[in-house]
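Example 9 (inverse folding). The structure is encoded as follows.
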């Protein structure tokens, strides 16, 4: 297999522009998913699904945060465009002096799990793992059974009402096969979404967390970067600034098919026991 590729999404620099959502839809011809008022800040899609392969979440919190740069006060005259960075006065601040409201933004996507339950339950082979380690649905093979939908611990996959087939992020399989970045990463103006070899991304992410921690952002942590977790690590992992639950993510995801081998073994033993008991009963009558 080719070197495993993936996404690292650094939510600390996400500005909520939704360029990733638009780029994903345009490149992959994903249908419009509803321009609804959800009451959840500027979030009008709420969750991932068949017609939402990238979803930008907006979380408004009553929690002290000075400014975008931790521990720095940006108050003062606004410098003209093109002025050098030192033209903006910045002075150290105590925690909480910048107010008690902070706005978290994060672009969510399919996790392309190492232990992918959707792959395990697909009866037709419509879901397969590519040479890049990503998980892709072949729409022309999918029979619409829907088994993959409850199997996903993140609720990523959905079915389209018009044909019943399952759809989700492909990590732009067609683009990366030609050496191009996925559309969402290409469109991201702040490099919040980074694409590359997974091992390199994990090293980069660990360094970024250390930088944020040193700057006083103690809440910064990685999510799904651990290969010993319940899905054996993800091909798309995140830097979060709060607990996963705040972003609508499960805190300790586990592949829903993890216990299937043991279940089958127990079922086989039970069946063998019933068969043995039946044979003994039949032999006793004889």
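The amino acid assigned to each position is listed next.
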């Amino acid at each position: 297999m080719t070197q495993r590729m993936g996404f690292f999404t650094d939510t600390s620099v996400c500005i909520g522009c939704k360029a990733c959502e638009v780029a994903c839809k345009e490149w992959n011809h994903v249908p419009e998913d509803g321009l609804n008022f959800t009451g959840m800040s500027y979030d009008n899609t709420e969750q991932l699904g068949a017609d939402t392969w990238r979803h930008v979440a907006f979380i408004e919190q009553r929690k002290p945060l000075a400014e975008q740069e931790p521990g720095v006060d940006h108050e003062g005259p606004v410098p003209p465009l093109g002025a050098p960075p030192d033209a903006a006065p910045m002075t150290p601040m105590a925690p909480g002096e910048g107010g008690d409201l902070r706005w978290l933004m994060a672009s969510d996507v399919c996790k392309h799990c190492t232990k992918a339950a959707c792959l395990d339950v697909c009866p037709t082979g419509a879901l397969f793992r590519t040479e890049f380690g990503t998980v892709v649905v072949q729409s022309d093979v999918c029979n619409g059974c829907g088994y993959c939908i409850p199997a996903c611990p993140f609720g990523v996959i959905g079915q389209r009402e018009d044909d019943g087939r399952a759809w989700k992020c492909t990590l732009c399989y067609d683009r990366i096969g030609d050496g191009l970045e996925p559309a969402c990463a290409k469109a991201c103006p702040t490099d919040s979404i980074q694409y590359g070899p997974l091992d390199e991304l994990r090293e980069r992410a660990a360094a970024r967390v250390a930088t944020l921690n040193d700057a006083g952002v103690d809440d910064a942590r990685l999510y799904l970067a651990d290969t010993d977790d319940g899905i054996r690590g993800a091909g798309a992992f995140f830097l979060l600034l709060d607990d996963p639950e705040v972003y609508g993510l499960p805190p300790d995801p586990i592949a829903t098919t993890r216990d299937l081998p043991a279940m089958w073994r127990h079922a086989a033993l039970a069946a063998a026991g019933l068969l043995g008991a039946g044979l003994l009963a039949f032999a006793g009558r004889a």
